[in-house]
Design brief:
This protein has 200 residues and is α/β, with parallel strands linked by helices. The protein is built from five helices and seven strands. Helix 3 runs parallel beside helix 5. 38% of the residues are buried. The mean pLDDT is 94.
Length: 200
């Protein structure tokens, strides 16, 4: 992969969002996605691998109807992008604290019979992951260099803390989901401005 054309967005857009900037701490599992460690100790994730995983994620999600997908973000920087994604795709989102029993207790009003779960950070969103494992549905998680990968079916390596990074990720995901579903044909047909997904 040498040229911009093959990435989902120009390299520049990725770099500006800081989607590839990890933390100073790295777990064994995340080492495979790390391109280098900067002089200040921060790990830098491989952009190609990030792009590749976003593509896989969008394809995988497009096998499901919006009502069957649940996306969760305990982390506040994920709230705006999730709400925007919901607006354009209809996918069920929970910005904020995951309500216990949402996936497991059919007696609750908030109960959702989801078929797949996506979380923005496997640590703060761990209760949702445990519930998804209990009911046996696949889990996709955005993982920074310091995340563990236990109980996760698909890891998307990225900076899962930054506003711009999360905004760009969910903007691309919404567009690619709609494209894979055949609801839009070309990138240009996705009219959602990136500003809707990200806090400036």
């Amino acid at each position: 992969m040498g040229t911009n054309e093959q990435l989902l967005v120009p390299t520049d857009s990725y770099l500006k969002s800081g989607i590839h900037i990890g933390t100073k701490f790295k777990t064994k599992y995340m080492e495979q996605f790390i391109y280098k460690t900067r002089s200040d100790g921060l790990s830098v994730l491989n952009l190609q691998r990030i792009d590749e995983r976003i593509r896989i994620c969008a394809k995988f999600l497009s096998n499901y109807e919006p009502k069957d997908i649940l996306m969760i973000s305990r982390r506040e920087n994920g709230w705006k992008p999730l709400k925007a994604l919901n607006k354009y795709t209809g996918i069920t989102v929970v910005p904020g604290r995951y309500p216990p029993g949402m996936l497991t207790n059919a007696a609750l009003e908030i109960y959702r019979e989801a078929k797949i779960l996506l979380v923005t950070d496997s640590w703060p969103d761990r209760n949702a992951i445990l519930d998804a494992n209990t009911v046996g549905i696949p889990v996709i998680a955005l993982c920074d260099t310091n995340n563990q990968s236990n109980n996760i079916d698909l890891v998307i390596p990225c900076n899962n803390k930054g506003k711009k990074s999360l905004g760009l990720f969910f903007h691309i995901l919404a567009r690619e989901y709609l494209k894979n579903k055949g609801l839009i044909q070309k990138d240009e047909e996705f009219k959602a401005p990136i500003e809707e997904f990200t806090e400036e």
